[in-house]
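quick one, 476 residues, struct below
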Amino acid sequence: MKPLLIGGEWVRTSHGVDDINPSDTTDIIDSFAQAGVAETQTAIAAAADAAPGWGLSNPQDRHDILRRVGDEIMARADELGHLLSREEGKILSEGVAEAVRAARIFHFFAGEALRLSGELLPSTRPGVTVELTREPVGVVGVIAPWNFPLAIPAWKIAPALCYGNTVVFKPAELVPGCAHALAEILHRSGVPAGVFNLLIGKGSVVGQAIIDDPRIDAITFTGSQATGERVARASLPHMRRIQMEMGGKNPLVVLDDCDLDRAIACALDGAFFSTGQRCTASSRLIVTEGIHDRFISGLADAMARLKVGHALHDGTDIGPVVDATQLEQDLRYIEIARREGGHLRHGGEVLRSDTPGFFLSPALITGTTADMTINREEVFGPVASVIRVRDYDQALAVANDTPFGLVAGICTSSLKHASHFKRMAQAGMVMVNLPTAGVDPHVPFGGRKASSHGPREQGSWAREFFTQGKTAYIHP
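---
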């Protein structure tokens, strides 16, 4: 049974939970020790004790540690990608690509540790200078989801450590293997005792203990909107910082003047790759009348050529849904869409394979309207709905008609429409003639409305959350 990491020590508990491969439920990856309230409180105490020293540590030391973490992840990208795909269900090429992305994130923030700057300003008072500096926030609770088990923890943990904060990390219960591998790398790379702590356990126990503890100075969270609301409510009495990413219902607008093959490729990638289990997935395809039928026909044909199967097998395009609960949710939304008048044009069937797993053929639902449940709520699976519209103006209105605002995409050859959409789309990120899913590790990530709350993640903008400003007036 793999242990927890608390205060620089590997800690075993009396209870462990098996990590199961969604491509083959007979394949037990490993067993992992489960934390409870006592272990959580001990980890928070260790992080709090370590915070003053780490906050004043030499930036070169922080750079060197983060650089070593990135180097090891990069050197082991094939191995870690294999573990990720076995554990979460992404196909192997996507798993390896995610490991490489995690390495690059650590490398980026290794550099940022040496780039943190301040300002020196003249005061309006003679002989006085003003110094503006940034300091760490303190103890950061990191609560990460299962769909990107290396990349998302990396883009939370790396900046937290870069800017001198200590970390209490709770990964999603479905992906303890990647979290433990990352903890081993951080420990081996020289992170001091208590600066990074790993807690594997239930959200209702470990997660709740983290958000209830006043010693946690900030929480960075990615997950469901309902859980995000709990994090916000629990954090308000403590007046702590919160950074939350809570999903999306992302539109991909397809206009009559688009390159049809490119639009189909964008929709196929954005909606269905990574089994559609991406907060940036193109779950609403908004298509104008002139190209609607050709687009649907071409997309359905492309979907029929996708091979759904074991994530580690050659030739697989789409891996399994992550677990039985998620599969049940996907099927429930498909059925709701059909009951409300949608037409299941392709897929949406549970598939049998050589191994027992959670395999679902990607689903395309046509004939939907903007007010249907399938277009209002996040499914988080390989399910896309199509909304037919008259023209660009209606497409933009429908794209913005959502409580979410993470990312929006448009496929068009019109510079006028592309420029207008970039300005008027109510989303934190906009893609033009590109899939809505797929972002670079060195630029800000985040949305608007119910999708996100707090400062952006990733890139140099991460310092807005992980540091706090200080203004000092100096008279010699």
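The chain has 14 helices and 22 strands.
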